[in-house]
Amino acid sequence: MLNWKDINTEFNAELQKEWENEGFNYEETKEWIEMGFKPIDLSLILFAKSNLGCESENFLSSSEIETLREIYEENLKQHSIILSENLIEQETIRQSLLPKKEDDWQLKQSLLLSQQEEENTDKGWLTDDNITYILENSEIIEKATDRNVQIKTDIANIYFQIEEAKQGRKITDEFWNSLDITKKHIMLPLRVSGNHWSLLIIIQNEVSRKPWYLNYISSLSYETSQQEVEEIKPFLQQIQEKFKGEGVFLFDENDKFKIINKDNPRQPNTWDCGVYLCLLVEFLSQNELYLLDEEDPFITSQTVKDFRDKWRKEIGGDKWCKWDSSEKNIDPEDEQLKIALALSLTITEEDNSLPKDMAADKASEITKIIDDLSKQNSYLTEIAAALEKENERLRKELTTAKEGSANKEMTELKSQLAEEKRKNAILGQELEELKKEIKQKELEEKIHNYFTKELWEDGLLSYQMDFLERFRSGWERSAGKEEKLSLVKRILKENQENNIEDASFPPYCPTKLQGLLQEWLIIQLETEFQAQIQQV
Q1: What single-letter DSSP state applies at residue 101?
Q2: Which of 288, 255, 316, 299 is nearest to 117 (CA)?
Q3: Residue 168 DSSP class
Q4: Per residue in 445-478, pLDDT tens?
């Protein structure tokens, strides 16, 4: 069976089906992709075929493809303008068919709510109740109950404590008493900046068993995270004040952004922060914090879609993403819904006396009219009359450019493309090796800093200190990577064997250092593996 991922790794089952539905087979698709198009460029290719007469054997250069893309985007823009004008015409016709103003309130509200339910729910923001329900009923979190974590689900109370702290008032004793500081991680879902969800984690020192430091995780950019930390600073300061007697670092006013996590996945839009929060809590209920990696995210667009489908069905559409204000769920890019909402807001609450049987008849009649007009709109996608003249000019220019030495030019361009691909592959490999080398040096620096700065803050036991002193001296004596690699393997193995013999005591190698050594070891093994592959 042919695997479309061999054409391009970005192909999935859904994209393959779309291409096949438009009549593209494996070989023809491969020719278009090798020309320089992407799997997501199906609409652009269809535009080129239907309006410019392009076929897969008519080779296009990269500059021609970019020109084609610009024409296509301009076509979409003009088409969008025409659609908007047509939508206004639809609404005018719909208004003329509606009953008089004194009778049409219920019908218009019904149409508006129906359109909101159909077009906007999947892009809605998760509410406090949605997130509370998910965190309390997630099978993934439930299976991880043996892990040493506490997940706070009294979201409204957390929000209240943050607002109280902003006003200069003290956090309540009830809130402090609800924190189980014996847990390794205490996760606090936060609602900041009015409607954004983020996560604050209170992390325990595994030796002293007391709160140690804070970690703030937001699915927006690092710069936005800084603004959010600044916003909740009074709340963080009170947490620091509460636990400062333990002699540990939590929140430093002079370095307040140190608590921001830079390795977590980032959302690509403005409405999925609640989904990212829940998926992040599920991940951290089973995995260590240091396993977060922005470059290798565990959250994908398919993960988000599956998550929304699952919980919308379980919670129910009447409660899913339903805030108090109807405007909060509107996608800012949804022009049709904004127009409908604007029209509904012009109706007063006194206009609510339309008979139910008449409303049903009128609704059916209006639905038919709107369906007919929607079908007419679909024909506009073929070609806008305003762009026909421009498209004809472009066809002539492309035909002229390919006459004469077209075959020779095509061969040269293909050769150049192949050479560029080869160079890009080499550069990509060198870049990956450079990233690994930089990562390795960063980890070795962190290991050095641990022994010179952080070791004395952990309150280690004597047998741990003896164990670490042997490792430190061996590490400093190791002249090359091979010696360091052998030492790290031996130390991790010895640590594991000692922990198995007596699991009631803290591990010989502290968790933070163990995590650094494991990361360093993985990089070395990956480098060795790649070297072996190249030799073969």
Answers
A1: G
A2: 316
A3: T
A4: 777 777 776 666 666 777 777 777 778 777 777 7
Closest by Cα among 185, 175, 189, 172 to 212: 185
Contact 248, 210 (CB under 8 A): yes
Give the number of other Cβ atoms within 10 Å of residue 522's Cβ. Answer: 13
CA distance 209 to 181: 8
Helix, coil or strand: residue 36: coil
pTM of the full structure: 0.41
d(CA 331, CA 125): 10
Lay out the sheet containing 185-192: strands in order across.
149-151, 185-192, 196-204, 211-218
Whether residue 106 contacts residue 354, with contact meaning beta carbons closer than 8 Å, is answered with: yes
* Amino acid identity at 47: F
Q: Write out pLDDT tens, residues 66-102.
A: 888 888 777 777 766 776 666 666 666 656 655 544 4
Is the model more confident about 187 or about 373? 187
Give 188-226 pLDDT, tens digit per residue.
999 998 789 999 998 877 767 777 778 899 988 888 888
CB atoms within 10 A of CB 48: 24
Q: What mean pLDDT, rounded, does the chain reach?
A: 75
Domain spans in the chain, listed from the N-terminal domain onward: 128-326, 417-535
**Which residues does 398 contact at the CB level (< 8 Å), separation at least 6?**
52, 54, 64
Q: Give the H/E segment covering residue 133.
A: helix 128-137
DSSP H helices, 185-295, are 222-231, 233-243, 273-284
Question: Can you give the pLDDT at residue 342?
Answer: 42
Burial annotation 274-298 (CB, 10 A radius, 16+ → b, else e): bbbbbbbbbbbbeeebeebeeeeee
User: What is the dotted CATH code of the domain comprising 128-326?
Assistant: 3.40.395.10
CB atoms within 10 A of CB 272: 21
pLDDT at position 385 is: 60
pLDDT at 372: 59
Which helix (H) or strand (E) is 119 found in, with range? helix 105-119
For residue 222, the Cα-to-chain-centroid distance in whole angstroms is 14
Q: What is the 3-state secondary structure (H, E, C) of 427-467?
A: HHHHHHHHHHHHHHHHHHHHHHHHHHHHHHHCCCCHHHHHH
Both structure tokens of 408? 């020779």
pLDDT at 534: 67
For residues 367 and 90, is the Cβ–Cβ distance under 8 A? no
pLDDT, average across residues 31-43: 86
Q: What is the DSSP letter of 196?
A: E
Cβ-contact 519, 442 below 8 angstroms: no
CA distance 203 to 250: 9
Distance CA 181, CA 227 (A): 28
Residue 470 CA: distances (Å) to CA of 121, 445, 451, 476 = 59, 18, 12, 10
Residue 294: pLDDT over 70: no
